[in-house]
Specification:
The chain is 43% helix and 15% strand. With 181 residues, the chain is α+β, with helices and mostly antiparallel strands. It has 2 domains: 62 residues, SH3 type barrels (Roll); 76 residues. α3 packs across α4 and α4 packs across α5. The radius of gyration is 21 Å and the shape is globular.
Amino acid sequence: MIFQNSVICFLDVGPNKKRTFERVLWIAPDHSQVVLINIDNKKKVPFPYFRDYKDLLLYLESGSAQVEIIDPDLRLIAPSDEYLKKYSQRRDEKFAIIEGIVFKEPDIYIPGKRGKLVSGAAEQCNKQVNWVYQLLKRYWFYGKNENGLLNDYFDVGVPTTGDEIEVKIQAQNLRMGKALL
């Protein structure tokens, strides 16, 4: 059975065996269509798209797809009380911008109608249209959860490996004229 907010893993049967993850955002009351959004990359979130409900069931029944019990970042969706205390005000300000349009389903998923809704929300809040689209995508990416609009400070900084650090130390020693043993 498919539910709203289910995460579906589509399995590629080709040579690269790539998997893609998509979230179910909306299911038509008559179960004719679903709206999915790709959640593989939180930095490049595409717009949601419609898919035939029966087609999705066929993928699941054939084993080409499976329902997953994962979420992209539980640290953001279910943050600590301390994190919420510190950042919830900004989250609430962001949600206020899109609150009037996110519940207009399925219109918010239809590109032509979505454009008008987003333009209206942007104008009303005196914000850029692209900013409103960005907020919508984050909200959808994190399962239509307001906490998805929290500032994500969990992955900040430059990741380095031990090898990179060693090379930097060696280069610094060479500049300072220290001999390497």
